[in-house]
Amino acid sequence: MHPLPGASVTLISPDALTPYSGMIPGLIAGHYAFEECHINLKKLCRWAGVQFIESKAHALDLLSRQVVCDRHPPVHYDLLSINTGSQPALHQIQGATHYGHPIKPVRSFLQGWQSWLGSNRHSHQPPRVAVIGGGAAGIEILLAMHYKMHRQYSRQSDFALVCADRQILGTHNKPVQDFFDQNLRSAGITIIRGKRVIAIDRQQIFLDDQTSLQYDFAVWCIHATASPWLKESGIQCDEKGFVMVDQNLRSISHAEIFASGDAASFCPVSLPKAGVYAVRQGPVLAKNIAALLQNQPLSSYQPQRRYLNLLTAGERYAVASWGNFFAKGKWVWYWKNLIDRSFISRFNP
């Protein structure tokens, strides 16, 4: 770390322990303890000489340059970096903001999952679990929950995956798609393809072909949207509410604001909402904030054309892909585990 001379740096976060998303399926499956896959922000900020405010930002006053928080007085800024991530687009589905458990925020999801597991531990009826969303997050979370239920609780249960597309994992290569198709079928998991969820109530999920699905625990892993307060602030956002940034990760409407990761809409080229981009943007973001304070030229972020995908399958087994490359096995899981533990150790000094 290189402190910025004369600058006061503040981190605002609703949680003192922030999750590393790559390890959350392993936490759900029981492979990791809670502390192993969370970053202690208070400890990290003390080490780095950064002020930490444990509060949720819920508004932005662009004129007075203040971040409005729910449990703290407004925080003034000269430069601002927005890294608030994304959340499932629940507002488009009737009842979705009241029923089911969105995978983000992760803390709320984990609390809901653990609470439901505890309350159903002695039930004599097979629980019915539904995951809505056939992307990487939906598949990994589904298989992690299935593993937990069947291997650690020895519970018979009915699992279903609802995928709006005809093919699961649409952005991955065919060997990855075929592997998880077979994996899900072998586990007895129902796959509902090409059908969209249009509504949900306390007991049923309603699909666009006028059929419905009974459930006891539902998980939302659908396409992402941004926190609504970003667009409401008046900063230039795209149609989904993400902050539009240039090649320097700088807002196209407010030069004193940067955005990165899922919170950003990268104008030079459309990028998927994937953690690998956020990780690579981090050093560029830090360098540009320092450069702006020192009146130095800014650096451009160059997104990688391809990146390594590592997807877990519930148990200690994983799949790797890069372009058309494909590999699978327990060794892939342990390779991923090594990568993940090495990454998170950098932020737990």
Q: Topology of this structure?
A:
Layout (H helix, E strand, L loop, with lengths): L9 E4 L3 E3 L4 H6 L8 E3 H8 L2 E4 L2 E5 L4 E4 L5 E2 L3 E3 L4 E2 L12 E2 L3 H14 L8 E5 L3 H17 L5 E6 L10 H13 L3 E4 L3 E4 L3 E4 L4 E3 L2 E4 L3 E2 L2 H5 L10 E3 L11 E3 L4 E3 L8 H19 L15 E5 L1 E8 L2 E5 H16 L4
Parallel strand pairs: 1-4, 8-20, 10-17, 11-12, 11-17, 12-13, 19-21
Antiparallel strand pairs: 2-3, 5-6, 6-7, 9-18, 14-15, 15-16, 22-23, 23-24
Description of the molecule:
The chain has 349 residues and is α/β, with parallel strands linked by helices. It has 2 domains: 10-86 and 226-293, FAD/NAD(P)-binding domain (3-Layer(bba) Sandwich), CATH 3.50.50.60; 88-224, FAD/NAD(P)-binding domain. The chain is built from 8 helices and 24 strands. It has a 5-stranded parallel β-sheet with strand order 10-17-11-12-13, with helices on one face. The protein has a 3-stranded antiparallel β-sheet with strand order 5-6-7. Strand 15 (204-207) and strand 16 form a beta hairpin. The termini are close together.
User: What is the CATH architecture annotation of the largest domain?
Assistant: 3-Layer(bba) Sandwich
Which range best describes the helical content: under 10%, 10-25%, 25-40%, 40-55%, 55-70% or over 70%?
Answer: 25-40%
CATH superfamily of the largest domain: FAD/NAD(P)-binding domain
Number of helices: 8
How are the strands of the biggest sheet laid out side by side? 10-17-11-12-13
